[in-house]
Amino acid sequence: MKKPLIVACCIIVVCSLLTISILLMPSTPSDSELQTSVQPTPKTTAQKTPQPTPTSTVQPIDPEVQQAIKKAINYLKQTQDPMGLLMLNVIYRQFHIVEFNDSLQRYDQLLVSNPDPWLRIFRRIADYNNSIVQPEDFNSVTDQLDRLTVPALYSDRRGLPDDYLTQLTEAMNMGSFYAEHSSNSGSYLLTHALLATIWLQNNRCSLQLPKDFTSALYQKNAALIGDGSQVDDIELEAAAFLYQAGQGNLVNPDFTQKFLRNIIAAQSTSGGWSATGDTPDNTNWHPSVLALMILLHIQYPAASYPPMIAPAPS
């Protein structure tokens, strides 16, 4: 009886030892583990201009564009124009440019010293709630361009005018007419009609636009971008808004690189841009912020970007 019991115990001990040795052996890595093991350790050094969610195609960093962006940031971080600060807030939210992280605070400081209804209205670009705007403030909206964009800016909070669709259509047609007759001032109706549609989309407005309206609007804005050696404010605005609408591909691929190089060539030594090529040293925040938007979209392409209008707090 004792001999079988001893044999059984020996078998159990041997099996246990074999099991333990198998468990302690290193396992063979899978294919995915092998691939992961050869990946370099990512650097943790923060960049001042990180890319948004990238597209599948990796774009090489263009040193000339990068230098132009750096100069533009240094120029624009000094602006005291209220609307300029709101556009810098858009750039901060879309591209995380740290130099612009205080743009809304600076805007509010200007608002304290100048409590203008116009400033309270457009503050919504940077603040979804914008509780400081008053109903009577909207009575001050009389400018033709503002009457296009302000209803779109508040389209999720206030009803659109009954004739708003007519206004958009007329602005597109009139802006196109002025552009064909070389009137830059009238062409801003066209770019602001595009801006209004961007803000309608940001606010998920259910306004039913006519068939092919947006495609025609995109094409007409793209037509504002010439292929000459100089760039002016209306070209920069059309291109910047097309990129904001996700239509940067409409900036004619036959001269996109030429347009890009012309933008860089038009940058002054101060880092800003002039509204026209005739006065290259008379720089201004408006063409400068538009040029910077274009350069950032080109240098850091992405499948999507945060909206121009600040979203609701999560």
Short description:
By secondary structure, the chain is an all-alpha fold. It is built from 13 helices and two strands; from the N terminus they run H-H-H-H-H-H-H-H-H-H-H-H-E-E-H. A two-stranded antiparallel ribbon has the order 1-2.
List the SSEs and their pairings.
Elements: H1 2-24, H2 31-37, H3 63-76, H4 82-95, H5 103-113, H6 117-122, H7 144-153, H8 164-180, H9 184-202, H10 213-222, H11 233-244, H12 256-266, E1 273-274, E2 283-284, H13 285-299
Antiparallel strand pairs: 1-2
Helix pairs in contact: 3-13, 4-5, 4-13, 7-9, 8-9, 9-10, 9-11, 11-13
Give structural notes.
This protein has helices at residues 2-24, 31-37, 63-76, 82-95, 103-113, 117-122, 144-153, 164-180, 184-202, 213-222, 233-244, 256-266, 285-299, and strands spanning 273-274, 283-284. β1 and β2 form a beta hairpin. The protein has 13 helices and two strands; from the N terminus they run ααααααααααααββα. With 314 residues, it is mostly helical. The relative contact order is 0.13.
Summed up, the helix count is: 13
Structural class: mainly alpha
pLDDT < 50 runs, ≥5 residues: 1-51, 53-57
| Shape, per Cα inertia axes | globular
Please bin the fraction of helical residues: 40-55%
If you compute it from the alpha carbons, what radius of gyration comes out, rounded to the nearest whole angstrom? 28 Å
Strand content: under 5%
Distance between the termini: 76 Å
Give the beta-strand count: 2
Keywords:
single chain; 314 residues; mainly alpha; two-stranded antiparallel ribbon; 2 strands; 54% helix; globular
